[in-house]
Automatic annotation (TrEMBL):
<keyword id="KW-0677">Repeat</keyword>
<comment type="pathway">
    <text>Protein modification; protein ubiquitination.</text>
</comment>
<keyword id="KW-0131">Cell cycle</keyword>
<dbReference type="InterPro" id="IPR015943">
    <property type="entry name" value="WD40/YVTN_repeat-like_dom_sf"/>
</dbReference>
<dbReference type="InterPro" id="IPR019775">
    <property type="entry name" value="WD40_repeat_CS"/>
</dbReference>
<dbReference type="InterPro" id="IPR033010">
    <property type="entry name" value="Cdc20/Fizzy"/>
</dbReference>
<dbReference type="GO" id="GO:0051301">
    <property type="term" value="P:cell division"/>
</dbReference>
<dbReference type="InterPro" id="IPR036322">
    <property type="entry name" value="WD40_repeat_dom_sf"/>
</dbReference>
<dbReference type="Pfam" id="PF24807">
    <property type="entry name" value="WD40_CDC20-Fz"/>
</dbReference>
<dbReference type="InterPro" id="IPR001680">
    <property type="entry name" value="WD40_rpt"/>
</dbReference>
<dbReference type="GO" id="GO:0031145">
    <property type="term" value="P:anaphase-promoting complex-dependent catabolic process"/>
</dbReference>
<feature type="domain" description="CDC20/Fizzy WD40">
    <location>
        <begin position="140"/>
        <end position="430"/>
    </location>
</feature>
<feature type="repeat" description="WD">
    <location>
        <begin position="186"/>
        <end position="227"/>
    </location>
</feature>
<protein>
    <recommendedName>
        <fullName>Fizzy-related protein homolog</fullName>
    </recommendedName>
</protein>
<dbReference type="GO" id="GO:0010997">
    <property type="term" value="F:anaphase-promoting complex binding"/>
</dbReference>
<feature type="repeat" description="WD">
    <location>
        <begin position="269"/>
        <end position="301"/>
    </location>
</feature>
<keyword id="KW-0132">Cell division</keyword>
Length: 453
């Protein structure tokens, strides 16, 4: 009788690099789309996965990892120390006993199979996950909200009043009471609203019109204080600096006027070759940044009639401008469809700092008052809202919901929430920088702006 027999095959692992194999095992078990989502997520499960991977490295590879970085803020993998050349499965008997003196060491009488490093890893403090709701907590219907990139039709006052330009009217919505009032109606004069801007105290609101007028309104009294002339085309950008008001127009001119003095006392700033679509004063009230359809970003001081700095790196219109409240002289700007980039500038030295391609038209920018973060709103082609960390430019959150370009942005006076507006005729409120407020979905669309006929 013939009996088959054979030796058992035992593979040799002497030349294997276990650190690389361990890395590939983790990567190959997920699809590319899952790997991409893992980089963007800030959930507890992703942190648990990183902790578990580090624990396995400690026990199998002797990596000695004691702390785990946030996978969202630090995407670099843990560096694995160089391993000894001895076999991975070498058994050894430790005869020398080390006295137990520290709380950081595992007791010799512990039944846990984990090493000291792994115990430290599990005991290391973990930063709570940053959770930003991807659902707006309130949605308001805003009929006749124009889909025009060059206009600025939404602003939020220090008194918690939201001003919105809808067609020929300006409406005020109270964030405290949800009450809506109509401030003005320009249809009587055959005009329409092209920009709105609150002063710092939140008592006056400036209204730019299609015919080139700038009207100053007392919000509490609901009366027009004055109407300023000087522009020959629509006024799409406004910016207050104390009692001074700067206005930018399609006529390529920036007018700076003190509302307390006669209208004849004005400064004319001429530097753009096309329409002025963005204006922002620095937090120290010393410098004015202006963006235009000529792809230029200009910085002016309070005394000269010529720009002190000119930046020409953008390849499209510059509407989105924001000064950092955390770092003196730091300015960020965003370009239109042909550019799509965020660019950061040190206006103290005139140097370009860094830039990033957002993938779509940049419509608006705003810094957080509490942290070194900023939010950008976008148009073609993704219509998204992005939250960034600075200076790492790590993407903290991506919010979607608008079906048109997100052209309008304003930050609440407490710095916790933002409101965005789009040509889909909706205003959406998001808890982006919130630390304490609960983010709950608002199930119904509140058609508040149709209460007044």
């Amino acid at each position: 009788m013939f009996v088959k027999s054979g030796d058992r095959f035992i593979p040799t692992r002497a030349g294997s690099n276990w650190s690389i194999n361990f890395h590939y095992a983790n990567e190959n078990c997920r699809s590319p789309s899952q790997n991409h989502k893992a980089k963007d997520t800030t959930s507890d499960s992703s942190k648990d996965a990183v902790t578990y991977a580090a624990l396995l490295r400690n026990e199998l590879l002797g990596s000695g990892i004691e702390t785990v970085q946030d996978p969202h803020t630090d995407e670099r993998r843990h560096a694995v120390p160089s391993q000894d050349s001895h076999s991975l499965f070498k058994y050894a008997v430790h005869t020398k006993r080390v006295p137990f003196h520290s709380d950081n060491e595992v007791s010799p009488y512990s039944l846990s199979p984990l090493s000291n490093k792994s115990h430290k890893l599990l005991r290391s403090p973990r930063k709570p996950a940053r959770k930003i709701s991807k659902i707006p907590f309130k949605v308001l219907d805003a009929p006749e909200l124009q889909d025009d990139f060059y206009l600025n039709l939404v602003d939020w006052s220090a008194g918690n009043l939201l001003s919105v330009g809808l067609g020929a009217c300006v409406y005020l919505w109270s964030a405290c009471t949800s009450q809506v009032t109509r401030l003005c109606d320009l249809s009587v004069d055959g005009d329409s609203v092209t920009s709105v801007c609150w002063n710092e105290r939140g008592s006056l609101v400036a209204v730019g019109t299609h015919k080139g007028y700038v009207q100053i309104w007392d919000a509490s009294g609901g009366r027009k204080l004055t109407s300023l002339e000087g522009h020959s085309a629509r006024v799409g950008a406004l910016a207050w600096n104390g009692e001074q008001l700067s206005s930018g127009s399609r006529d390529r001119v920036i007018l700076q006027r003190d509302v307390r003095t006669p209208p004849s006392a004005e400064r004319r700033l001429q530097g753009h070759r096309q329409e002025v679509c963005g204006l922002k004063w620095s937090p120290d009230h010393q410098h004015l940044a202006s963006g235009g359809n000529d792809n230029k970003l200009l910085v002016w001081n309070s005394s000269s009639l010529l720009p002190m700095q000119q930046y020409s790196d953008h390849l499209a219109a510059v509407k989105a401008i924001a000064w950092s409240p955390h770092q003196h002289g730091l300015l960020v700007s965003g370009g239109g469809t042909a550019d799509r980039c965020l660019r950061f500038w040190n206006t103290l030295t005139g140097q370009a700092l860094q830039s990033t391609d957002t993938g779509s038209q940049v419509c608006n920018l705003a810094w957080s008052k509490h942290a070194n973060e900023l939010v950008s709103t976008h148009g073609y082609s993704q219509n998204q809202i992005l939250v960034w960390k600075y200076p790492s430019l790590t993407q903290v959150a991506k919010l979607t919901g608008h079906s048109y370009r997100v052209l309008y942005l304003a930050v609440s006076p407490d710095g916790e929430a933002i409101v965005t507006g789009a040509g889909d005729e909706t205003l959406r409120f998001w808890n982006v920088f919130s630390k304490t407020r609960c983010t709950k979905e608002s199930k119904s669309v509140l058609n508040l702006f149709t209460r007044i006929r």
